[in-house]
Amino acid sequence: MNGNLLTYLAAALALALSSCDGQGGSYLNAPIPEEFPNPARIEYSGLTKDQIVDIVAAAVNDQGLTSRMADKKRGYVETMFVDLSDFNLLRSDADAYPTAERLVYFKLQVNDAAQGASNIEAGVYYRPFRPFQDEVLPKGHPGLRLFNALQIAIERGIVAAGGTVVSSPQKSREL
Fold it and tell me: Who contacts 129 (Cβ-Cβ below 8 Å, separation ≥6)?
């Protein structure tokens, strides 16, 4: 079996075991760090860009999101728009927002570093005012809980595949 497939399978297994309902599982209830940037940067080492794209794609799917694009050559993963009210654990908070503010999507860019740690630039966006004009979610938006859950899943996937999370908004959390 080739290394990329083994990495993907290990990450998928780790994510499946750690998530309980396919919609962020217990991660949706995880506390959001006080300083929680959006977009955020996760620095990692020990894995290739292709392996990280596989881990990110698996984490996206495990959180109940649908990938619109997962391009290993560019190191880019983007999800389809998702209505936050479709997530049981987010519905009560999300229903307080107009539809345009409940529809969010995620963009994740994997960047190889020539030296030192490589990184994933990740963000969650919506288009509350105009089509095709992305805005980052404001503090307190329920979509940040899903973003937090996605970051946890990615970081656990990195660790399960034998990589190291060097720094991230989650770094103080036990992986």
Answer: 100, 135
